[in-house]
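User: Some background: our group keeps a shared notebook of sequences we're curious about, and every so often someone picks one and asks for a predicted structure to add to the entry. Today it's my turn. The entry only has the sequence so far, pasted here. Could you supply the structure so I can complete it?
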Amino acid sequence: MTRNSEVKDNAMSQTQISPITVVRDFWNRRPCNIRHSTKPVGTKEYFDEVEKRKYFVEPHIPAFAQFERWRGKRVLEIGCGIGTDTVNFARAGAEVTAVDFSDKSLEIARQRVDVYGLSNIRFYHGNAEDLSSFLPVQPYDLIYSFGVIHHTPHPERIIQELQRYCHSHTLVKVMVYHRYSWKALEILLREGHGAFWRFSKLVKRHSEAQTGSPVTYSYTRRNVRKLLRGFAIDSISADHIFPYRVADYLQYRYVKVWYFRHLPNFALRWLEKCLGWHLCVNAHFAGDTDCSRGGSSAVPSQDNSPVRGA
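Assistant: Of course. Here's the predicted structure to add to the notebook entry:
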């Protein structure tokens, strides 16, 4: 076999791998927030430190999730990762169903639940684009997904699936990445040197702590409204600018970039509300029948074109 034919065969084998499989493998190699602690993975000290660090750099998450609000309610989390938010919903007294496509993430999340002795969490492994193929269809009071659906090849399929798990008062809380954000601008200038025509590829590659994310979409507020067809939007707000020097942060030091170091906190908060990386969306189900009765009267899409941000 010649060198050229070997290269051609390798290229063909790569194209035969489904995009969703590439996504799964990416997050299996390094689950989100896995390096938020230097303690041994799986110990209580490790999970305590992961949570402390996550909510220190992303303090808007507890306010957005409103963990205590869901005591005694049924919560469905799409993309639980290693379980930081999952555990906090459960601690607050919610009955939690958590779904993730990363085997490794679920393994660590299950360890976390065992460490804290929680019994009100059920885990399911699968691709949320085909949610109803593995998760029994029943209504939930809250459907929550923080920073997940923009990493799947077809986010609109997840949104369609979620309508099957709603009753007439189901609330939805979703975070997706903001196209018009400080971080997107930083990526464009620092990594792309202003090559705006490469914007989508640049954001995809540099959106996460580990480079090379196979799928990352970013959204405008208008894109979000189109994506969440079948749900009525209550609010869309931007939040979160990471102000720390990455090199120091990786060494567990919190040293702000020079231009943020001298910026008053109120000014940073204003900037986050305008150019935050996280678009936090509150919505409610727009249908008028419960999924438990065997259907949904959600507002149908006006066309079949995908809505995947950029």
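Suggested note for the entry: Residues 1-15, 292-306 have pLDDT under 50 and may be disordered. The longest strand covers residues 166-178.
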